[in-house]
Amino acid sequence: MKMAKYTAKRIVLMFFTLFVISTICFVLIRILPRELPQDKNLAQVIAARWDALGYNEPLLVQFWIYLKNIFTEWDWGTSWYIQFREPAWDLLTGRLLPTVMVNFYSLLISIPVGILLGIYAAIKKNKWQDSLISTSVMIFVSVPSYVYAFLVQYFLYFKLGWLPLQVYSLADAGGSWFTWKMFYSMIAPILALSFGTIAGMCRFTRAELTETLTSDYMLLARTKGLTRAQATSRHALKNAMVPILPMIISQFIGILGGSFVIEKIFAIPGVGQLYLQSITLFDYDVFMVDCVFYVFIGLLAGIVVDLSYGFIDPRIRMGE
Questions:
Q1: Which of 5, 7, 100, 102 is least enclosed by beta carbons within 10 angstroms?
Q2: What is the 3-state secondary structure (H, E, C) of the chain?
Q3: 210 CB-near residues (< 8 Å, 6+ apart)
């Protein structure tokens, strides 16, 4: 019962936080100057639409009209610059698939590799293998993902010619996101996104497993006759996974968010690039639906991670 109350409380707080942040974003984007296109006919159409939406009214009235359209008609506004007269919601959902695919492939590679490296480093604690992995992890964690993007492009495209410079368009890849040619063009951004995640998972796994291996119950397991490998696989790994699995869950939820810079560098027509375009072109409604989307994903990931602790280990119950 307490778990249900805690969940309900977190959901209410999530929507309250979402409302506050959305309000701040709305006010900040609407106070920016608006510019009409040079084409007079197009400028008249846009100006008339802006007037109908209350863009010339006080900010409070604009925000009320915006919320009313969302809750009554699921109308998140219209794009006027990125894709003329395209509904902002349709524009967002149309960009989700490439973002999810690139990040999903990246996680499929980076999570198991990172965990395995972390386990190996913990088992080889204070040996040269551990020192090598730990030093490499610190380097990879400290370097931003866009640096890896440039390095991948330089070595695998410019020097070796193994991979294309940017992700293929749908026309070049055979008209589908699920062709081998499209996957081949995504290898470069997948690698660029994987290095940092591998390093983060490795460091976290090593830290948790190292602490677990030095626990009293591990010494008890060894005195009962279990080998080091048996004690590690049966007891240490199981207990170390309690904080690691929620981190993996949050990573998979976060794939919807994507990566702004990586999508820009590799010309991925995803949500991240759409967000940057909306800021550059002052496309208000697209910017707002992107902001709400990113904030919602972040808040949802936090709730799921907190609740997952209790489901993974029954001894932990949030709110009890």
A1: 5
A2: CHHHHHHHHHHHHHHHHHHHHHHHHHHHHHCCCCCCCCCHHHHHHHHHHHHHCCCCCCHHHHHHHHHHHHHHHCCCCEECCCCCCEEHHHHHHHCHHHHHHHHHHHHHHHHHHHHHHHHHHHHCCCCHHHHHHHHHHHHHHHCCHHHHHHHHHHHHHHHCCCCCCCCCCCCCCCCCCCCHHHHHHHHHHHHHHHHHHHHHHHHHHHHHHHHHHCCHHHHHHHHCCCCHHHHHHHHHHHHHHHHHHHHHHHHHHHHHCCCHHHHHHCCCCCHHHHHHHHHHCCCHHHHHHHHHHHHHHHHHHHHHHHHHHHHHCCCCCCCC
A3: 122, 125
CB 256, CB 272: distance < 8 Å = no
**3-class SS string, 185-229:** HHHHHHHHHHHHHHHHHHHHHHHHHHHHHCCHHHHHHHHCCCCHH
Q: What is the pLDDT of residues 137-148, one digit of tens each?
A: 888 888 888 888
Q: Report d(CA 17, CA 306) in Å as an integer.
A: 17
